[in-house]
From TrEMBL:
This is DUF1697 domain-containing protein. It comes from the Bacteria. InterPro entries: DUF1697. SUPFAM superfamilies: SP0830-like.
Amino acid sequence: MTRYAGLLRGINVGGNKKIAMADLRKLVEGLGHSDVKTLLQSGNVVFSSDSPDQAALAAELERAIEAELGMSVGCLVRDGADLARIIAADPLGEVADNPSRQFVVFLSGAVDQAKLAEVEALAKPGERLAAGEREVHMWLPDGAAETKLTHLAFQKRLGVTVATARNWNTVTKLATLLA
């Protein structure tokens, strides 16, 4: 069995797409996954599965949420090796002095460096991006509230179907849960 983190896009944010974490755990368990735990209220679920296919697991989560909860929610799945690699890389660690303002934007596809330049053009002074494999590291010294570097900007300009961000604290907690 492999431990995975399911990352749900845009639930329980600003009163939209409300999903109780107990309901999310029950839903994931109902899909046949085990040792299900949630982290925070913003769409992080950790589980064990026999499936080796992250994209299939994400699609399964999306279908189940639509069927059982009536919501269209983009989902991504990553394993412990993915999170360990992301944390080890930490290309912004030298400038990011506040983990609540350091983010990882998880993507449904690989990062196209040329297209990432289109996203970087939206950055305010001091904001920084660094490409990973299927993620972009992001430093927002003034916080996420006023940035133009939103999930929609990443989806539109990088041509991915799902982009969802987690701050560094959440990324490291998810990695611990997967270890």
